[in-house]
Amino acid sequence: xxxxxxxxxxxxxxLPTERNFEIRDTKVGKPVAGEVLLRTLYISVDPxxxxxxxxxxxxxxxxxxxxxxxxxxxxxVIDSASPALKxxxxxxSGSLPWQLYSVANAQTVQKIDPTVAPxxxxxxxxxxxxxxxxxxLLDIGKPQAGETVVVSGAAGAVGTxxxxxxxxxxxxxxxxxxxxxxxxxxxxxxxxxVAINYKDGNRYKSAEELRKEVAASCPGGVNVYxxxxxxxISDGVLPLISSRxxxxxxxxxxxYNSQKLEVGLRPQPFLLVNSALMQGFIITQYAQRFGExxxxxxxxxxxxxxxxxxxxxxxxxxxxxxxxxLFKGENLGKQIVKVAEFRLP
Amino acid sequence: xxxxxxxxxxxxxxLPTERNFEIRDTKVGKPVAGEVLLRTLYISVDPxxxxxxxxxxxxxxxxxxxxxxxxxxxxxVIDSASPALKxxxxxxSGSLPWQLYSVANAQTVQKIDPTVAPxxxxxxxxxxxxxxxxxxLLDIGKPQAGETVVVSGAAGAVGTxxxxxxxxxxxxxxxxxxxxxxxxxxxxxxxxxVAINYKDGNRYKSAEELRKEVAASCPGGVNVYxxxxxxxISDGVLPLISSRxxxxxxxxxxxYNSQKLEVGLRPQPFLLVNSALMQGFIITQYAQRFGExxxxxxxxxxxxxxxxxxxxxxxxxxxxxxxxxLFKGENLGKQIVKVAEFRLP
Lengths: 345, 345
Prior knowledge:
30% strand; 18 strands; six-stranded parallel sheet
């Protein structure tokens, strides 16, 4: 049986290109005791992977040049040497290789029930992005009913969930996204109060322009700013925070391709005069509470309070392209690569 | 009896000058029921007053042009129409006018015991700066024994107390200050582990130079950064924070005279990859716990674990000059203006 894999062959400089990756045919491994052979069904491409393509210290080890990329994926067990899983089981993992088939320790994957929700949601609303939204917003942002929550990257995998949880919690939600299609979706499908397009045609609006638009929508100031984007958009929002505001630094997709330390508006003066908090977090620090998060998100999904969006690219070989598209704002909701068809038995 | 007052007559542009203030003779008022007549003994000049000289929204109302400046002061009751206080009592308040004499509601001042510690300490180590150090460091910075704490503005009213509390808590302390006299004081008198001069002669070191010096002193990274200064010094420290670091935004003296929104190194990437926190605060939010703070600080003072430094300028008319000197780093420890002599009866 033929296998196929995608390796990092050079570190991206700025925006990654397909030339940073190599796709090649290989062999399928065999599971030994405790292992399973997996057929990849869906691959999750995530902005944070860009950080791993860079050399140097971070919260997670960098990918080595020549290494097969590893990310979240949903897979089907096709052969098992572990009593924990059997052929036909569907599993999710935060770190499976970009391969058609892979061998994994059964302990490192988690079985999911394919009858509860579409299995791709294990990579989105019921997976890491959903949990990131849930814990980041509720544990750090601590939104109170009646407060104003501004969300950047609002139409992305995390942002779409943040917007809806904030609405569930009774907040006024101002969503910032990068196209009319996205702002329409946020307003009509997700029910945000105001959606702001950070582009004017192909032109990126300046921090000052955005500040005026956000200010007009937030007469009482911004109580929670859930930031997925950073850069100029944050420069637009920061001066509008209110007393005791909470700024959740969840992602900085506008900055990930930067080659140098970025300069911009200093947030300290706004934090100081407002006794405000700005906090970064990594979702794995909430690992002990993932069960709670998945349960809550699942309930909201079942009750119809939570919708999800996915942008699905078809075909394993398109994985690098789907990843690169994240930085061009090509995805609405969670960006996923469909690798193989799965049917309930 | 002749009175004298200092009014703001124009808003400073950049560094304040003496021309922004007017000193003039006036009359002494008379206390009515519930009020006391106070003779000012010591005036506290504080960096945060610069913010009040600016127009516009902040956590505290701006001074109006023409208004007498108000700040912390220690005063003696010389006439009382309140049963709560009698002539000879010494009081402290966070908001007394820059006047030789003033009339105040007895409820708005707090009696202090002049036999416990020199009365000027009610404006420094046992007053707002001490409490700011205490709550900012312990409640937000949460230093753990063995951690590395970096303090900017380390030789100032707040910084000197922060350095010592961090040492009491068993931390390694890196103190940043602006002269050899200050770094000597921090090393020899306050016992910090490393003291870094942010100047080289009259030249301010760059963020990169400071970063190298701080990095050399913090091989394990910075766990707590207590920031009184902001600007380039913070740009030097931020890239060195460690996982789960806490950045206490206490003051930004390097920025207070700026006329525009300041641009500098974006802290978000460092907060994100380190799951770190950056928080501003205003000491009044801890008002309910001031008793605890004063008690602890007083105990450390009595036990000889806490030293304090004061820079005392003599003469009421020198108050504006003493205030302006804060922005030139002229003070070691708490900057105070001595207005009148006080002797224990």
